[in-house]
Specification:
Elements lengths: L1 H23 L3 H26 L5 H24 L3 H25 L13 H11 L1 H9 L8 H29 L14 H5 L2 H13 L3
Helix pairs in contact: 1-4, 2-3, 2-7, 3-9, 4-5, 4-7, 5-7, 7-9
Length: about 220
């Protein structure tokens, strides 16, 4: 069962990555459309998640919806600005993808101590696996001497660590909402993953962090 889920998860990830590459390196309008469409789906899935929690309609829920809307607008802006350097954007997304895959594979194979009560399926070994796997894109950069990022290797190592850490934090935050809503997935759009939010839960937190670091000339 685990192998089948892993294969489905990997195939979906590969399909998404190919889909992303096609749009990313095509006309800018197509890329902008994909970003806006993805942000809209994530927004709707999150709103559906909050509604399932059963919180009464109050000013607090309205504030959550408003904050989510503006945050996703900021996320859209970050993705558009980061796409000025296409290879840098691919590097960021690759870190997130490998971090997610590493956490899933190592966590399932090794298991062990639970990382947090918020998401019982996440383990310390899975978190370590996320960090280790997230360095694979950096290793590729180092091996092929790709110099599209103007930072030394030590800064890139710290940068990769922070992106992976943010991805894992985002995953836990969305897991908290899913646990409160008593659902496994935010949707059924992606086989092996659930909803789009299940797939990009770490990414939506990591991209703004990467954008801020880019503005700091990190």
């Amino acid at each position: 069962m685990m192998i089948n889920n892993l294969i489905t998860r990997i195939m979906t990830s590969i399909g998404l990555f190919i889909f992303f590459i096609i749009f990313f390196f095509s006309h800018n309008h197509a890329w902008f459309f994909l970003i806006i469409l993805g942000s809209s789906i994530v927004f709707l899935e999150f709103i559906g998640l909050v509604n399932k929690i059963g919180i009464k309609k109050t000013i607090y829920t309205n504030m959550i919806f408003l904050f989510t809307f503006f945050y996703l607008c900021f996320l859209t802006y970050c993705l558009i600005k980061l796409s000025d350097s296409k290879l840098n954007t691919v590097f960021i997304l690759s870190i997130c993808i490998f971090s997610d895959v590493g956490g899933y594979v190592v966590g399932k194979l090794i298991g062990g101590k639970k990382l947090t009560k918020i998401s019982p399926k996440k383990t310390v070994s899975g978190s370590i696996g996320s960090f280790v796997f997230s360095y694979i894109p950096l290793f590729i950069i180092y091996m092929y001497k790709l110099d599209f990022i103007n930072s030394d290797i030590f800064r890139l190592m710290l940068y990769t660590f922070l992106i992976s850490l943010t991805c894992q934090t985002g995953d836990i935050i969305i897991s908290f909402f899913k646990r409160k809503a008593k659902v496994k997935d935010t949707g059924k759009l992606l086989p092996g993953h659930g909803g789009l939010l299940d797939r990009v839960d770490g990414l939506i937190f990591a991209v703004p962090v990467a954008f801020i670091f880019s503005k700091l000339n990190f």
